[in-house]
Design brief:
The structure is a single chain. The protein is mainly α and about 80 residues long. The protein has one domain. Helices cover about 75% and strands about 0% of the residues. The chain contains 3 helices and no strands.
Length: about 80
């Protein structure tokens, strides 16, 4: 998936390089390239983030909520 993202950024960078002035080039790169790609990667990364969260919760449940990180007053 990252190969497609890199390719898309390359294409939009070339599109931005052909613009008449710098402002149009930057806006072309951001509007057509970086912003949609960031949204797409964030949306497609949601299942991975959910699996990681569930995995962390499973480890926390297996270890227990009280894992000895707070020694208390006596120590």
């Amino acid at each position: 998936m990252y190969v497609i993202a890199i390719g898309w950024l390359y294409v939009t960078l070339l599109m931005a390089a052909t613009e008449a002035n710098l402002t149009a080039g930057v806006l072309t790169f951001v509007v057509y390239g970086a912003a949609p790609l960031a949204l797409l990667l964030w949306l497609f990364g949601t299942p991975r983030r959910n699996r990681a969260r569930l995995s962390r919760e499973a480890v926390d449940d297996a270890v227990g909520k009280d894992n000895g990180s707070d020694a208390g007053r006596d120590q």
